[in-house]
Design goal:
The chain is α/β, with parallel strands linked by helices. It has two domains: 2-240, P-loop containing nucleotide triphosphate hydrolases (Rossmann fold, 3-Layer(aba) Sandwich), CATH 3.40.50.300; 249-309, CBS domain Like. 38% of the residues lie in helices and 24% in strands. The strands form three sheets. A six-stranded mixed β-sheet has the order 6-7-8-3-9-10, sandwiched between helices. A four-stranded antiparallel β-sheet has the order 2-1-4-5, covered by helices on one side. A three-stranded mixed β-sheet has the order 11-12-13. A hairpin with a 2-residue loop joins β4 (55-60) and β5. α5 packs across α7 (138-150). It binds adenosine-5'-triphosphate. Residues 11, 14, 16, 34, 36-42 line the site of adenosine-5'-triphosphate. It comes from Halomonas stenophila.
Length: 314
Amino acid sequence: MIELIHVTKRFGAETAVEDISLSVARGEFCVLVGTSGCGKSTTLRMINRLIEHSEGEIHIDGQQIRAFREETLRRRMGYAIQSTGLFPHWTVERNIGLVPRLLKWPTGRVRERVEELMALLGLAVDEFAGKYPSQLSGGQAQRVGVARALAADPDILLMDEPFGALDPITRETLQEELRALQARLQKTIVFVTHDMAEALHLADRLVVMHQGRIRQQGRPLALLREPTDDFVASLLGGEDRGLKEAALLPVSERMLPLDPRGLARERVGQHASLREALSIMLWRHAERLTVVDDDDNPIGELSLRRLVGARGHE
Ligand SMILES: Nc1ncnc2c1ncn2[C@@H]1O[C@H](COP(=O)(O)OP(=O)(O)OP(=O)(O)O)[C@@H](O)[C@H]1O
């Protein structure tokens, strides 16, 4: 559990973060969003003491972070950043194995772990293990950075735009991997992104920051439906919020029983989102879709009318 209690950070005369209180439960995925310069990275870096906070208290599992030795704290927390922070004169393999080696894992185990992570992140061992960061593309370097953050299997992951330089397909794959990892292993994650779709998709707790302060925090659906002010509403997408909300709701939630008059020709999977269903309707010029299970058996139907009414404001 991570707790920030009335935390402020000043750089000289400038206040970068002002009086923020935030609590992230074990196994929770917390995403920080906000305008450029609002203090997201500073907040993240205060948690692993790359930046010392000026006022307030930060606790990890009930203990003040200042009570930990800095290295102990940092080894407990994986940290991945957009610019990767890889050591340029070290190979990919050595970069990924950094923390396990510091923790004095046996060499064979380090090697095994590095290979496991490279496979997870789609980096062929034969091709990439011996390369240096300057020989990698931006996206490949970013994957190495994420692998390094995960290497020692830390309970806490701090991630600052870790997928910023990735193509949409790799990005989506990694988002799913991270979500699955977090659900399976109860990782506590604090994640910074500028991509609102990514934030809404990943967050259990979404934290909107502005000018060093937290404007609103809560579940993504709650923020979309009841933003506290125009700033939060517009950051979350303004009029586009309807589509963003639909992206968070599964088809199965609004499915109707099968129509005895016959099946609609176009189909949608039960796990698809209402946004995907709407997209199929638009693309196929269809007002009704047959909802199918994982084996492609029809289990219900979704109409446009039902979908439009399904946005939670009926
Ligand atoms: N080391 C530093 N010295 C002085 N000012 C700093 C330092 N680091 C950050 N700041 C200032 O603190 C404020 C918050 O910066 P921070 O990097 O946390 O914002 P951010 O929300 O992560 O921004 P972005 O989305 O652009 O990355 C900014 O005004 C920045 O100029």
